[in-house]
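Dig into these lines:

——
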Amino acid sequence: MKCRVCREKAVIDLPRHNASFCPACFDSYLMDQVWKAIDEFEMFGKNDRILVAVSGGKDSLALWDILNRLGYQTTGFHLDLGIGGYSGESLEKTRAFALRYGLTLHVESLVQEVGASVANIAELTNRPPCSACGVSKRHLFNRAAQKLECQVVATGHNLDDEASRLLGNILHWQDGYLEKQNPALPDEGGLVRKVKPLNRLTEKEMAAYAFLKGINYVVHECPMSVNAKQLFYKKIMNQVEQESPGTKQAFYFGFLDRRSRFYPEKAEEAPAHLCRECQTPSYTEVCTFCRIRLKVARSEQNQDTTA
């Protein structure tokens, strides 16, 4: 197997591009794909400070590495979700990566912020674990970006993530989610800009990058996501991709090309309230995150009175 560019020995085959690459040419290809995503969707500029949400997995750590190689100003943010040994390993890998490259890392704990772990929150609120986690992350990522004076939050969602998410949203016609499925969401309604610079790259490509760069990351999936529908949709997309390489890319970017026909761009109305608890913009008197936090607090009080 020869590299398509230089004809040296290839180390990775990409059927969706009908191409194979050696390590050096693969690195050039991957960096170019990230640059194209940043440029096409006007994600950020050299003067922007970027908060990179790092979980300890391959995608987020690789993203942090890539953005720094491209010369952007970054600060890492890790949220400890309180999921036993998994969260402990995730924090360890993230700290080791930051130390290795001399990068700034900010760490917060969900247990300290809410009073409970993801599993406890899900149980107390009757939400699926991934839903409880998502609400908490959105709030705390945004708060951290504002506190650390970052204009952008960057996450490590890749093409596989976005294609499987799109499949689920279409199967259930989740118009609210489809309208917002965009790799660059503007800073509106009290939220800082949120971007996904890896949206042109697959999970396989990110794993190859992490391996070639010697990035030590958490390999296994989050134990809270075992029954998540997202993994089921990802499995379906992988089966389709195996039979017809390039389908994920065509499906996802075909939607982005046609998105404006179904969901015209419009200025989002600013929330009418400030959350009475945390003072962040909210469409209700108390934001969703604070409702969760208050429910956890009430549960603890009830346990104390019945003990």
